[in-house]
Amino acid sequence: MELRMRHKAAFGFGAVGKDIVYMLISSYLLYYYNAVLGMSSVFIGTMMMAARIFDAINDPFMGIIVAKTHTRWGRFRPWILAGTVLNAVTIYALYATPDSMAGNAQKIWLTLFYLAWGVTYTLMDIPFWSMIPAITKPGKDRESLSSLARSCSGIGDAIPTVLTMAIVPILSGSSVIADYRIGFKYWALIVAVIFVISELVCVLVVPEKVTDDRMESAGVVQMFRSLFKNDQAMTIVFSIILVYTALNIVGNLILYFFQFDVGNTDAYNVFAGVCFASQVVIMLCFPLFRKKWNNTQMFMAGFLIQILGFLVILAMSFTGVYHTVTWALLFIPGILVYAGYGILNVSLTIFLSDTVDYGEYKNGTREESVIFSMQTFTVKLASGLAVFIAGLVIDLVHLDTAIEIQTARTLAGLRLWMTIPSIILLVIGIVVYRKFYRLDENKLKEITRALGKEQSGE
To answer: Which of 138, 262, 293, 403 has its CA 20 to 30 A from that of 358?
Structure first.
C-alpha cells in the first residue's frame, strides 16, 4: 500500500495530539499536585510508579487484544478513536480536582484518574504506533514515516511545555501559584479537545493494510512466548526505558530549576521553545542525515550529544555563569540534550518497527501490536520512574515550594540530581546497544528477502 502525503500528514497530526496530552501529564502533573495543591511529592511519585507496575500487566494484554481485533473499520482505528475519547475525559478530570476536595480524598481522586488515564492512553497509543510497521516496509518508507511522526510528536511535546506556564496564569486570572488550579483545569479542557480532533482526523484519513491471520490465530501464551523470544525487541525496549527516563528526570525538575535556581520562570517558556524547536528540526532532518550516516552512527551520535549537553549544564550550574552573564547561555546545553534525544527518538521507533519483521522471520508470527504495547508500557514506565525519582529528589534536597529562596545545599542537590542520573542511564544505553543489538542494514535486507519469498509461496 502506497502512503500519500495526505495520509502521512494525517498520521503526523495524530502524533501531535497524542503527545500534547502525554506531555501535559508527564511534565506538569507532579508540579500541579505538589506546588499548586500542596500534595506530598513522595506520595505522587510513589503512586505513579505503582501505576506503572499495573501497566506491566495491562499493556501487553491490550496489544494482544488489538492483534486479535477484526472490524470493518480495521484493526487499529477503532481502538485509537475509543481510547482517545476516554483518555480526553481522564486528562480533564486529573486537572479538575474539585475545590472542596483535600487530604486523602484528593489523593484518591488522583490515584483513580491517573490509573484510568494510563489504561485509556494505552487503548489508543498501542494501535497508533502499531500502524507504522503494518503500513510500511523496512527502509526509506518506514524511516520517512517514523521521522515525520516523531517530529510531529516533538511538536506535540513542545506545545504544553512552552505554553502551559504562560497560559495557566492568564486562564487563572492570577499570578499566585495557589490560584493556578483554575487555569490548569481550563487548559486541560482545551488540550483534551485538540486531542480528540487530531485523532479523529487520523482515523478518518489514514488507511489500513489487510494482513495475514498468523498472529490473530495465535493463543495468548504463544504471543507472549514470541514476544520474549524476540531478543532484538527486548533490547530496544530496555533502551527506550533508559533514554526516556533520562530525559523525563530533567523534564520533571527543570521547572523547579528555573523557578528557584535561575530565578526566572518566564525564561523557562523561551528555553523550552528553543529546545523543542531543535528537537523537531533534528527529527525532520533525520532522513537527510541517513544519506551520509548509517543507523548505528546516528544512534551513537544521539547518545553522545545528549551526554555532552548534560555535562555542559552541570558545569554551567556550578560556575553560576547564567547568573553572572545571562540565562540564555542555557540554550547551549538545552539544544544539545533535545537534539540528541530527537535522534534517539526517531532511531528507536525505526528499530522497534524493524524488530517486528525480525520476530516474523525468527518466530513465524507478526507481532506489531504486542511489540508496540511494550513501547507504550516502557514510555509510561520511564515517566513513572522519572516522577518517582523527581518526587524523592524534591524531598531529599529539602526543596520548599512555599518559599522563594532555597539554600545553597538544596540548589546544589537539585543540579546534581537533574544531570548525573541521566548521564549514567545514557552510558548504560550505549553499552546495551553495542553489546546486544544486531539488526544492521545487511541483516534487514536478508530478513526482507526471506519474508518476501515466504509470502509469495516460494
So the answer is: 293
Q: Which distant-in-sequence residues (6+ apart) come within 8 Å of 320 by Cβ? A: none
What's the full length of the chain, in residues? Answer: 458
> Of all residues in the chain, what percent carry a pLDDT higher than 90?
37
- Cα–Cα distance list, 309 to 123, 140, 175, 252, 413 (Å): 35, 30, 32, 17, 18
What would the 3-class secondary structure string for 368-381 be? HHHHHHHHHHHHHH
Q: How far is residue 335's CA from residue 120's CA, in Å, rounded to a whole number? A: 33
Give the CB-side neighbour count of residue 315, counting CA atoms within 13 A. Answer: 9
Cβ proximity of 142 and 132 under 8 Å? yes
Tell me the residue type at 264: N
The single residue listed with the C-alpha cell 553560576 is 320
d(CA 283, CA 341): 9
Gap between the terminal Cα atoms of the chain: 22
For the segment 100-107, the average pLDDT, to the nearest whole number, is 88
Burial of 273 (0-12, 13-18, 19+ CB in 10 A): middle
- Long-range Cβ pairs for the range 212-217 (8 Å, 24+): 212/366, 212/455, 214/364, 214/365, 214/366, 215/67, 215/365, 215/366, 215/367, 215/368, 215/370, 216/67, 216/68, 216/70
Write the DSSP string, 329-394: GGHHHHHHHHHHHHHHHHHHHHHHHHHHHHHHHHHS---HHHHHHHHHHHHHHHHHHHHHHHHHHH
Q: Are 306 and 202 in contact (CB under 8 A)?
A: no
Q: Would you call 291 helix, strand, or coil by DSSP?
A: coil
**Cα–Cα distance, 127 to 315 (Å, whole number):** 42
- Give the dihedral sign, CA 198/200/204/206: positive
For residue 215, what pLDDT is reported?
A: 45
